[in-house]
Amino acid sequence: MSRYHPVDVYVGNKIRETRWLAGLSQTALGMALGLSFQQIQKYEKGANRVSASKLYEIGQVLKVGPAYFFEGYDEGHEFESVIDGPTLNTMSAMSSLTPRQMAAVASVIRVMADDNEETAR
User: Are 63 and 95 members of one domain?
Assistant: First the structure.
């Protein structure tokens, strides 16, 4: 059981997932908000509560409304990511790459996906 409040953990997970889907690192989101990546990390873990005004600002950067971060919350239920575990792990690892490395990885992934499409035909 988490030592953090379940709503804070849920909102933090939604922030993390939405940030990843937007292709932003914790550093990039922090810079857009005038915060450190460590503060973003704390929000995403639910260790620090996000104020209403900060949640609004996060939503502005991620192009979602503040209510989005509460959608699907049901007391007693865990956060369910729309991204599977391996993809989440890959995205997390990629967030530490340089832009040049990220472009190289993206190129490899595109080639592999094209190969899969041709094999399926």
Answer: no
Round to whole Å and give the CA distance between 31 and 76. Answer: 34
Give the contacts of 73 (CB within 8 A, at least 6 positions apart): 7, 10
Report the CATH number at residue 59.
1.10.260.40
pTM of the predicted structure, to 2 decimals: 0.66
Q: Are residues 62 and 91 in the same domain?
A: no
The answer to whether residues 95 and 53 belong to one domain is no
Q: How confident is the model at residue 121 (pLDDT cuts 50, 70, 90)?
A: low
Alpha carbons within 13 A on the beta-carbon side of 56:
3
